[in-house]
Specification:
Elements (H helix, E strand, L loop, with lengths): L1 H17 L3 H14 L5 H9 L3 H21 L7 H24 L16 H17 L6 H24 L5 H24 L2 H9 L1
């Protein structure tokens, strides 16, 4: 039910990004206002770069290697499935983003040439890479406080990446919002899959 609601929201945002609507015009006004905000450009550039493929993917790969090592050492059945599922979720990002960009064909903010800015690939890369890394790590963390803080840190990081992209004028806010919704759908699907393959059981073995 929740996944269906997100799909409807994504369809609505995509429609708004594709045609000239009051929401899209308001989105562009908001984007110009954020671009002119007081956040230093260097800080915004740093945040935007955290959504770069060469930054986010190595983080996920390192977590994949660690989790696979822990699970195999613990004798977890099908220990390789969770890391593989996370890789599939990440691979789905360009597979979905590229055709969406081509179909929507939204022009970028002032100073950005061409079209194909909706949805934001950097935002989706950050959300899915960092989000999948956290989902893989959580079952191996026994401290509830650490689990909660890691999840909060991930959410803050992904939102910061999106804000940095808008502040630097690389994307409109709606581009980022659409990517966040799409990423949430991928991460929810990954969460359900991890639960079904018994990832929690693997944690109990590994944490004993």
């Amino acid at each position: 039910m929740f996944l269906g609601g997100l799909a409807l929201l994504f369809a609505f945002l995509t429609w708004q990004a594709a045609v000239d609507t009051p929401l899209r015009r308001a989105d562009e006004r908001l984007g110009r206002a954020i671009t002119g905000s007081r956040l230093p450009g260097g800080a915004a550039e740093f945040l935007a770069d955290l959504g770069n493929f060469i930054v986010a993917v190595p983080v996920l790969v390192a977590v994949l290697a660690y989790v696979a090592w822990r699970a195999r050492r613990a004798g977890t059945p099908r220990w390789w499935l969770p890391p593989l599922a996370a890789l599939v979720a990440l691979a789905a990002v360009p597979a979905l983003i590229a055709p969406l960009k081509a179909v929507v064909g939204r022009a970028g903010p002032p100073g950005m040439e061409g079209d194909g800015f909706y949805p934001s690939g950097h935002t989706a890369t950050a959300a899915v890479a960092y989000g999948a890394a956290v989902l893989l790590l959580l079952p191996w963390l026994r401290d509830t406080y650490v689990r909660r803080e890691l999840t909060i840190a991930c959410v803050v990081l992904v939102v910061a990446v999106g804000f940095g992209l808008i502040r630097r004028g690389y994307h409109w806010p709606l581009d980022v919002a659409g990517s966040l919704v799409l990423s949430a759908m991928l991460l929810i699907t990954l969460t359900v899959f991890l639960h079904r393959v018994g990832r929690t059981g693997g944690r109990r073995q590994g944490g004993s």
